[in-house]
Amino acid sequence: MTESAPIHERLLKLAETDDTITGAALTGSRALDRADRWSDTDLVFAVQGDLTRTADRWTQRCYDEFGALHHWDLPADDRIIRVFLLAGPEEIDITFAPEDGFGPRGPQWRTLFGRERRLEPFAAPDSRTLTGLAWHHALHARNSVERGNPWQAEYWISALRGQVIALACLRAGLPTAHGKGAHLLPDELTTALAATLVRSPAEPELRRALGASAAVLLEELQRTDPAVAERLRPVLTPLIEPQGTPVRRDFDDTP
Questions:
Q1: Is the bond preceding residue 89 a cis peptide, omega within 30 degrees?
Q2: Residue 120 maps to a domain
Q3: What value does the mean pLDDT take over residues 98-110?
Q4: For labeling, which of 9, 41, 96, 145 is most exposed (least CB within 10 Å)?
Q5: Are residues 141 and 90 in the same domain?
């Protein structure tokens, strides 16, 4: 295996010769043969014995042999999910799993060697939680505008847009996490979402973008759960159509 071979092929070749690794799988777009030149590499290794020892040994290997620049760990249960940045730039995600936790929990999985176990699939996204996060973000965006904190307001408006996208993707049966299904949403919705982008930190612009965001949220809720839309309408409508001159208040609540 030459250094010109793809990184994931070189890593898998090394895994086959590692006595502590008893299984390997591709996840993400590469598992479905949908990877392009911009795709990350996502690998899962089944580990026999101490996970930390194996993960640390592979971490050193990624620095020494693959020129890693940085790494960090995603929170996990009984696994270690280690994320590496390589020069290029290129991202490599390696999950070190105990042998009894090696198996697919979603469709993006391809076992390359080893015995996979039958695991519970990942829980489906919860529309109630997505809706709750959406109105939470809308209120905190409003509060930030009233406090005169423009960049915090921009943060919450952008976060609100993300929840609307997730709700729309859930309704359409598209991937909901990290905007992965956003490019497949209909033009009607994405055109409306364009109006939610904050173009400057000026207060009038923040109020305009927040109003557009609240309007798109209400329209999406009307499609997904009309009863909830009607309950939330009295809260969201003033954000869409602000009445009178805003009054600056000194709030002391936190998200």
A1: yes
A2: no
A3: 94
A4: 9
A5: no
What six digits make up the tokens of 105?
A: 């929990």
Pairing of the two strands 90-98 and 41-47? parallel
Domain end marker among 113, 136, 170: 113
Domain end point (choices 49, 82, 113): 113
Pick 241 or 194 by higher pLDDT. 194
Q: Decide if 104 is inside a domain.
A: yes
Please state the rounded mean pLDDT for residues 56-62: 97
Confidence band for 125, pLDDT divided at 50, 70 and 90: confident
**Distance set, CA 78 to CA 42, 50, 97, 98 (Å):** 18, 11, 7, 7
Angle formed at CA 184 by CA 183 and CA 188, multiple of 5 degrees: 90
Burial of 18 (0-12, 13-18, 19+ CB in 10 A): middle
pLDDT of res. 1: 54
CA angle 156, 136, 124 (to 5 degrees): 100
CB 41 within 8 A of CB 93: yes
- The size of the chain, in residues, is 255
CB 11 within 8 A of CB 5: no
Residue ranges making up the domain that contains 204: 127-240
Asked if omega into 255 is within 30° of 0 (cis), the reply is no
Assess contact for 233 and 204: CB atoms under 8 A.
no
**Number of domains into which the chain is organized:** 2
- Give me the pLDDT at residue 5, please: 74
Query: What is the tens place of the pLDDT at every residue in 87-99?
Result: 889 999 999 999 9
